[in-house]
Amino acid sequence: MTKRIICLFGPQGSGKGTQAKILTAQLHIPHISTGDLFRAAIASRAELGKQVEGILNKGELVSDELTFNLLKERISQNDCKAGFILDGYPRTLTQAQLLDDFMNVDVVIVLEISDAESLKRLTNRRQDSITGAIYNLYTVPKPPKEIERRLIQRADDTAEAIEKRLKKYHQQTEPLFLYYKNKVIRVNGEQSIERVAGDIERALVL
Ligand code: ADP
Questions:
Q1: 68 lines ligand 1 (CB under 6 A)
Q2: What is the pLDDT of residues 146-193, one digit of tens each?
Q3: Fewer CB within 10 Å, N- or C-terminus of the chain?
Q4: In the chain, what are the domains?
Q5: Residues assigned a catalytic role
């Protein structure tokens, strides 16, 4: 198999994590989310976690250098040899250039949703504090009663932090579509999970 490096772009709540999981199962390559890497560092009380916790909670971006170093370490591991799915990286032009000097991205998938939809999804997003499963209070399936009690909200899913994250996405990440030019595939993210996955699957075989 040739190496496949797939980048998922899309505003907060556009379904990158959900679609990355589906792609991982189909393509047998790992899903790498820089947000998850940072949150794991925070949860394990690692030095890096202490450095970035305040930045994440406010909805700011971690420095390009720190983020790239963390990513580089992850994608240098053995399970990334056949390729990987990037979720949340790159978010700035500098990050895209740093990655390009190291490895070339093959395809960029953009999940398109409006800011209004993003805000609605994120303010209703909850996570099972034990299993990590994600639920949405306004869609199905509803969490079972015993799980409902242990649902938590991500520290940066407050209206204020969401607005800041969306602004950064429009200002700093969207210009990257021009940078990646003909590698970019746009998919309507305001459809069912299955339909979005189907559109991505069709786009990847083209
Ligand atoms: P979202 O895309 O919904 O904002 P993520 O889970 O992808 O959430 O990221 C959470 C936070 O982690 C970001 O708001 C930012 O603080 C940090 N982060 C993740 N990826 C990057 C990146 N590529 N560059 C800088 N900061 C990042």
A1: no
A2: 899 999 998 899 889 999 999 999 999 999 999 999 999 999 999 999
A3: C
A4: 4-29+82-204 (3.40.50.300)
A5: 16, 91, 125, 154, 165
